[in-house]
Design brief:
Blueprint lengths: L18 E6 L6 H20 L5 E7 L3 E4 L5 E6 L10 E4 L5 H7 L1 H10 L5 E4 L3 H7 L7 E2 L6 H7 L4 E2 L5 E4 L2 E4 L4 H14 L1 H11 L14 H7 L6 H9 L8 H8 L3 H12 L3 H19 L4 H7 L5 H12 L3 H8 L2
Parallel strand pairs: 1-2, 1-5, 2-4, 5-6, 6-10, 7-8
Antiparallel strand pairs: 3-4, 9-10
Pfam families: DJ-1_PfpI, HTH_18
GO molecular function: DNA-binding transcription factor activity; sequence-specific DNA binding
Keywords: Transcription, Transcription regulation
């Protein structure tokens, strides 16, 4: 389930001074990982100023300071971290990088600084693959965490003490926050603003940026077929195409799928789970969910027709599946996402 904040109101800490936010910069970081969250806090500072209240003092900082080139090629000016040692840092935010494996090699000294600084900061957060640098610093041991869906398996294998949440948009564990892929950093930043400044300010920021204050659904907003193709599931590619072409069949049982794959039911169930990370039944359900989402976005069919064409059988079963995976009803999904 997604981690969402429930009526947190204004934080109890004093608002007599701006809260100091430090965004950690390093070579080849993701531009949107950095600027998406920054824009949220910038808009929140404007909204707080309208109320005669302090907002945020933001710093983009690197170990040595100076110009830092992002993965996209834009150069960002940064201050040196040692200039902030006495700044009373409220929140540290770690952006991700497309090549996070190389970043973990290149940023050993930055990770050491992060480890020490997080002990003094009120909270520490990451965007997308920035979760890996938090994990490298030991901040996520024994905690649940989110990252980009395509990097979840890598995070789990590199840092087995971290409980990886495959579906969360963002996760809060005590004073540690992590978010999923790229734009999920905006969702997390809005939640941080709501915790600091209250719901009214967060709603004003969400409206200005034309985003949801609390986005429906998890990071299952990607292609089920694409995810399976990226995994070690080559032996089942043809089966997945066949499933996608037969979703109107309400009897896609393990026996039926095993027969199509040319395997015994028991061996099929075991091998499929090992190679894809999901049971056959769960995979079929997600294929049905994806097909229903596409039709709700693009098709004029009514909801019951879509439910039957995708193999749910009836609208109630489809509604239950949507609520379980996306935390939204099919009708509300159509209202928000239809084109």
């Amino acid at each position: 389930m997604n981690e969402m904040i429930q009526d947190v109101g204004v934080a109890t800490e004093s608002m007599s001074r701006p809260r100091t936010l430090v965004f950690l910069a390093y070579p080849q970081m993701g531009l949107l990982d950095l600027t998406g969250a920054q824009t949220v806090f910038w808009a929140a500072t404007k909204a707080m100023a309208e109320r005669g209240l302090p907002g945020y003092a933001m710093h983009t900082a690197s170990l040595a300071g100076g110009l830092m080139r992002t993965a996209e090629g834009l150069v960002v000016d940064t201050c040196a971290l040692d200039r902030l040692d006495g700044a009373g840092i409220d929140t540290l935010i770690v952006p991700g990088a497309p090549d996070i494996r190389q970043a973990m090699i290149d940023c050993v000294d930055l990770v050491a600084w992060l480890r020490a600084a997080s002990l003094k900061a009120r909270r520490t957060a990451s965007v997308c693959s920035g979760t890996f640098l938090m994990a490298q610093a030991g901040l996520l041991d024994g905690r649940r965490a989110a990252t980009h869906w395509a990097m979840c398996d890598l995070l789990r294998s590199r840092f087995p003490l971290v409980e990886v949440d495959l579906d969360a948009i963002f996760v809060q564990q005590d004073a540690v926050w992590t978010s999923a892929g790229v734009s999920a950093g905006i969702d997390m930043a809005l939640a941080l603003v709501e915790a600091d400044c209250g719901r009214d300010v967060a709603l004003q920021v969400a409206r200005e940026l034309v985003v949801f204050l609390k986005r429906p659904g998890g990071q299952a907003q990607f292609s089920q077929m694409l995810q399976l193709q990226m995994q070690d599931s080559a032996g089942f590619d043809e089966l997945h195409v066949w499933i996608a072409e037969h979703l109107d069949d309400t009897h896609l049982t393990i026996d039926r799928l095993a027969q199509q794959a040319g395997m015994s039911p028991r061996n099929f169930a075991r091998v499929y789970k090992r190679q894809t990370g999901r049971t056959p039944a769960k995979a079929v359900e997600l294929f049905r969910l994806e097909a229903a989402r596409r039709q709700l976005e693009d098709s004029p069919r009514n909801i019951d027709q879509i439910a039957r064409s995708c193999g749910f059988g009836d609208e109630d079963r489809m509604r239950n599946t949507f609520q379980r995976h996306l935390a939204i009803s099919p009708r509300d999904y159509r209202n928000r996402f239809s084109r």
